[in-house]
Task: inverse folding
């Protein structure tokens, strides 16, 4: 069953690819290929529907308690001595949640894409790539060992590259795709190194064996375990767009918007969170690495949110927001709040997927306009997009009782509960929540409220077809009620996801909270009063800053110009995402280019080519001089021969 | 009559030098071939002189053949073959160039 779940999208990808080539041939023959492209759309969607159905059945099997994990192994892939790596799939409780997110949100985005890519000549190719991506992502979460996970990890990276550069004819998407690929390569190299360290430590790459390893008595392995944890986290930094490797994600918006929703918001970028969750005992064994993760997450959250404040491109706002929300997930992981991180991952997939799809609908209706300064007043023209986008924004900004409110609050509360050392992280998280509410409602106000700032004579915004709005409505409902998955402890029906995930996180919790509680193994919990207080404070912050952001921009864009005039350096600093790109350009890319240029000109062209050319010149120079000996006169040949013989005789006599 | 071996060797050297001189200095192929004959016969003379020099120990009595004259006979044989081939080449050269001057045959000039 797991194999069918995994391979359905691959079959879909192959079929869509075949349809793409058929469509190409038909178009070249001058015929209409519209039917074929529509067929590809529905083929791809059907493949994901099959996966979703199987994921639901896997989840049901786990829920009914028939098994703790579904396993299906196939054949040994690598076998050397006692070391074997199997091609095997495992779906445990963590995987099943990921499976539902990937195939569920994935299905909605596929349906949406059939409308969004309606007129694109490469529609069949798009669906082939999208299905291939889902296949790789499923491989990533289903694989029973790190190597298989890495295959999926690289597979999603490849598909991300293909889809970011989908409109490569335009030029800059191809560059963005390359940037994403190269930055991810840095993380992937660290991932591999980390896997090697783990292989050296445990003599196996099997994830359940590693997670079930002995982390209680580290002894002299402590350093190596910390190294493995840090290296794998660096890999996660690349995939999940954390500082210092987050710079590729904003550029990745060059791809079609459904890609941004599926890959760069809902699924692929959460692979790093999944990796840390999967290996939670490894991280729990070295708490200081967890603290590092928390610092990175908090910094990333702050950088992303503050940069989103000043962006004009609606997709850039969402991209930086995604960076920021991923930071929250790592902040949750660092507090040992495994289920809270997964909770935020799920709710973020709902509301950020919704927001991206909504922005795609806006861009579609505005004839490919992405600049919010040229929008305004769209709520009248696109009512369904507006309402759903409104729900998504409310969830993202953490307005009370919506999904984002509960998931964000859980992460912050767990950080707060850990005591003074974690309070700076908590404070950054709270500040980021305020910024998040502000930029979210700035975006809503600029896009949907105020007077139209576009050329009303030429641009006539229109509502998107129902193939696009139906997924929006479904996601909006999920974004509104997603909080029910894991309510805080003070409410009835609390902690569903936490209990669900308990078998996976038990080992990590036991390690992390050794000294806490009566019998040990329980995270420090806040008193009910404190928790209510934090909930109320979170709600108040979200409401106040949402209100301020909305009102500052409700009338128009003047406020942006005002900020720029009053604080030009700050505005520039934020627009450039804290100047990371510029610093990388100046400190790394340019020196590398210079070094490569020097290597090419001095070492390669001058030294190596000089040596090779020198040998050639020497031979031909000697040749021109020596050819005078061969003048065709037999007598001279004889003379030289005689001279040689005489010379030999002379040396023989003299020696 | 007791000619010392040294005299014979000096005569052989003189003959050889004469051959070399003729070989290098003359243009006519036939003279050049004749000079080669001269050098070969200088070698023959030194073979025979050496043979006579060592024959004093009467090697034959100990059952050894005197090998010097045999070498000389071989050389004469080879020289005859060489003269046959050489003269054939001279005719071929003459057909090609209408002359027997050696320096006209310089097609292998590098």
Result:
């Amino acid at each position: 069953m797991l194999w069918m779940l995994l391979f359905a999208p691959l079959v879909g990808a192959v079929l869509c690819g075949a349809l793409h080539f058929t469509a190409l041939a038909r178009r070249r023959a001058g015929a209409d290929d519209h039917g074929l492209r529509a067929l590809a759309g529905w083929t791809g969607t059907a493949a994901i529907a099959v996966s979703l159905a199987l994921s639901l059945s896997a989840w049901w099997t786990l829920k009914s308690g028939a098994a703790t994990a579904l396993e299906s192994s196939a054949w040994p892939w690598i076998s050397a001595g006692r070391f074997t790596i199997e091609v095997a799939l495992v779906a445990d409780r963590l995987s099943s949640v990921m499976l539902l997110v990937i195939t569920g949100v994935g299905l909605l985005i596929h349906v949406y894409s059939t409308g969004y890519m309606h007129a694109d000549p490469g529609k069949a190719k798009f669906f082939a790539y999208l299905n291939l991506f889902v296949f790789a992502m499923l491989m990533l979460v289903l694989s029973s060992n790190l190597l298989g996970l890495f295959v999926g990890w690289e597979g999603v990276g490849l598909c991300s590259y293909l889809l970011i550069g989908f409109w490569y004819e335009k030029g800059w998407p191809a560059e963005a795709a390359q940037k994403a690929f190269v930055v991810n390569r840095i993380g992937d190299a660290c991932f591999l190194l980390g896997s090697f360290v783990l292989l050296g430590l445990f003599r196996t790459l099997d994830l359940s064996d590693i997670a079930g390893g002995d982390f209680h008595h580290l002894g002299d392995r402590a350093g190596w375990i910390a190294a493995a944890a840090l290296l794998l986290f660096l890999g996660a930094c690349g995939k999940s767009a954390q500082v210092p490797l987050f710079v590729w994600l904003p550029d990745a918006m060059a791809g079609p918007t459904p890609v941004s929703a599926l890959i760069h918001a809902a699924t692929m970028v959460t692979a790093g969170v999944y990796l840390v969750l999967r290996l939670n005992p490894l991280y729990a064994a070295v708490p200081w690495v967890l603290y590092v993760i928390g610092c990175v997450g908090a910094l990333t959250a702050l950088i992303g949110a503050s940069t989103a404040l000043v962006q004009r491109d609606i997709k850039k706002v969402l991209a930086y927001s995604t960076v920021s929300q991923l930071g929250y997930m790592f902040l949750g992981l660092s507090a040992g709040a495994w289920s809270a991180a997964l909770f935020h991952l799920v709710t973020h997939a709902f509301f950020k997927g919704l927001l991206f799809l909504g922005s795609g609908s806006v861009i579609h209706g505005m004839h490919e306009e992405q600049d919010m300064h040229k929008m305004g007043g769209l709520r009248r023209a696109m009512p369904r997009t507006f309402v759903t986008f409104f729900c998504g924004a409310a969830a993202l900004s953490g307005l009370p009782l919506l999904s984002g409110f509960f998931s964000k609050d859980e992460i912050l509360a767990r950080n707060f509960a850990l005591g003074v050392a974690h309070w700076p992280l908590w404070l950054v998280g709270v500040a980021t929540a305020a910024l998040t509410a502000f930029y979210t409602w700035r975006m809503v106000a600029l896009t949907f409220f105020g007077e139209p700032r576009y050329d009303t004579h030429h641009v006539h915004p229109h509502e998107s077809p129902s193939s696009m709005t139906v997924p929006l409505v479904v996601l909006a409902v999920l974004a509104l009620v997603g909080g029910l998955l894991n309510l805080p402890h003070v409410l009835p029906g609390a902690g569903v996801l936490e209990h669900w995930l308990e078998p996976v996180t038990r080992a990590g919790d036991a390690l992390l909270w050794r000294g806490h509680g009566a019998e040990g193994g329980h995270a420090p919990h806040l008193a009910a009063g404190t928790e209510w207080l934090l909930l109320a404070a979170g709600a108040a912050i979200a409401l106040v800053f949402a209100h301020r952001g909305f009102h500052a921009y409700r009338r128009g864009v003047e406020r942006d110009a005002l900020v720029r005039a009053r604080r030009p350096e700050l505005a520039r600093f934020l627009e450039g995402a804290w100047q990371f790109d510029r610093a990388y350009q100046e400190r790394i890319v340019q020196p590398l280019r210079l070094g490569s240029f020097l290597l090419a000109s001095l070492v390669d062209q001058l030294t190596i080519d000089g040596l090779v050319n020198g040998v050639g010149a020497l031979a031909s120079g000697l040749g021109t001089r020596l050819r005078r000996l061969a003048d065709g006169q037999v007598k001279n040949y004889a003379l030289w021969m005689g001279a040689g013989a005489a010379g030999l005789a002379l040396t023989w006599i003299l020696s | 009559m007791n000619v010392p071996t040294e005299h014979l060797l000096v005569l052989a050297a003189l003959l050889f030098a004469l051959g070399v001189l003729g070989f290098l200095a003359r243009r006519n192929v036939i003279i050049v071939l004749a000079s080669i004959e001269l050098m070969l016969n200088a070698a023959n003379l030194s073979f025979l002189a050496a043979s006579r020099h060592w024959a004093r120990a009467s090697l034959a009595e100990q059952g050894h053949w005197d090998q010097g004259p045999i070498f000389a006979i071989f050389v004469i044989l080879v020289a005859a073959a060489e003269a046959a081939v050489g003269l054939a080449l001279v005719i071929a050269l003459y057909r090609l160039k209408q002359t027997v001057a050696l320096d006209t045959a310089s097609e292998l000039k590098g």
